[in-house]
Amino acid sequence: MSIVADETSEPEHTPETLADVMSLVEHDPRTRIERKRELCSALRTASRAIGKDLATIPCEPRQLRALLSGVSPKGVALSDARWTNVCSLLRRALRLAGVRTMPGRARDPLSREWETLRSLLHDRHAKLALSRLMSWCTTNGTSPEAVDQGIFKAFHQAIEETSLGQRDPGGLYRDACKVWNVAADTIPEWPKLKVEVPDRRRRFSLGLDAFPPSFAADVESYLAKGGEPDIFSDDYCKPARPITLKGRRQNILKAATALVNSGFPSDRITSLSQLVEAENAKAALRYLHDRAGRKKSGHLHQIANLLKTIARYYAKVDHATLELLRSFCKNLCPENNGLTDKNREYLRQFADPNKVSALLKLPQRLMNDAMSHDLGRRGDAVKAAFAVAIAIEVYLPIRIKNLTDLQLDQHIRRYGRKTIVSIGAESTKNSQLIEAELPEEVAELLEIYLTRFRPRLVRGPSPWLFPGEGGGRRREGGFGTQIRDLVLRETGIKMTVHQFRHFAAKLYLDRHPGALETVRRLLGHKNISTTARFYHELDTALSSRRYAQVISECLEEANSEAVTRRSAA
Predict the structure, then answer these.
(1) What's the fold here for domain 342-503?
(2) Rounded CA gap, 533 and 336, in Å?
(3) pLDDT (tens digit, 9 = 90+) per residue, 280-295?
(4) Which part of the chain has CATH 1.10.443.10?
(5) Exposure of 477 by Cβ count < 10 A (0-12 exposed, 13-18 middle, 19+ buried)?
(6) Entry pTM
(7) Around Cβ 404, how many Cβ atoms within 10 Å?
């Protein structure tokens, strides 16, 4: 088995795993020994970072990229610089073994035509967004005038199939399309091609406009009754909040879409009564169940319950139909309403006390870093904002919507040296008031952020504690994703913003077994049964540790008695 040092050559055997790549590198007669050592060391380091043996790690770029994207250098005791070097050497090893990969950075200068075009871009973000496209076109001899939709599609395929960068290729391609179109509209010298920007939103539900107008009117009528019910009605119930009505609308559309996908014509769904007919409801729920891999879930159970509620109180169906819908709800109810397997796996990370320490110290470390490297940039202010957001979540684990909803003049109250976070019951999921004093260390971080960093994030008046671009409210999904990625990058801990709530429960119950009432109040659960359902297993898991402690104490007593008897003898 041999290969030449030319990275574009084809090996005699196509490698399938990183172990194959290492073997090809080790047996290459034209690669210097020092270079072989570097490449093999990088392969072993990548294996350790991924947490798998070389023989089980595929070298196909798309699969390997997915594994590399989950690596946090700090989580495996690597500096960012070392990990960057490892990835660079990994690409070299793959190319040496005949695996086509896109360079992490362009090694050759752009062609004169592309460099001229690039100079017309004055925004750094725009230059970065188009850098890979320009380098790829230069390498393939494609001039700016020759670029068309087909070239863009070929570029998209190339980054999907050969890129090892941790940046999502789909997002990278979408950004390139958007920036190209803006340049075509605003720069006279730019090629006038307008490319199609892919829609990456994962849509399942059809809109109301996909159904007859009578169905849309019936849906709005039902939701209106839930939002402003007649207080003198026989079936009066407490008005639903806007977020609840939004969820009901989404679930109705999911059920209606599932019915259409099961083969029922959309133009025949003229009312909610038709949607909750026994056979139609069954077909819709069966489709959703199959789509979920025939697994029960809380969300599917929620849709089934909504159909049953509509059937009972709005459509007024007959007894037999209602009983059938009740049976669907019962059969689709998940057996376990506690922690999911995903959340159990997440909590297992904190069996390592170093992980706990890393997360608790992260806010202060981020703020110190923002202050010590502060050059007056927006990026430094964003880092400080994340420091405060994570500190709030550590000490007061609120939901992401409440975090992005925080307003300086409404939710942050200062009384002397005390700082209070106050969120009204009408703004929380469980209609429970949140009133908590921030610890002194968090209040200090907040003060530094407000006086030194936040002014850079807004150009005019803005009420939001964490303003987005233009001073508006940050979107929950984007802010949550940024916090998740930052925590992973800085600590190696994989967690979402919502999982700060599970972390808080575990941290407290580890030290105060059985103290579910405190956890209930901290998390804002209405009933202790909710807290017990989710977290009793954490308390149960501690029983083995407490029992092991009893055994240790018994052994110590036995050893002490033995020593006493020997001394007496």
Answers:
(1) hpI Integrase; Chain A (1.10.443)
(2) 9
(3) 999 999 999 999 999 8
(4) 342-503
(5) exposed
(6) 0.72
(7) 21
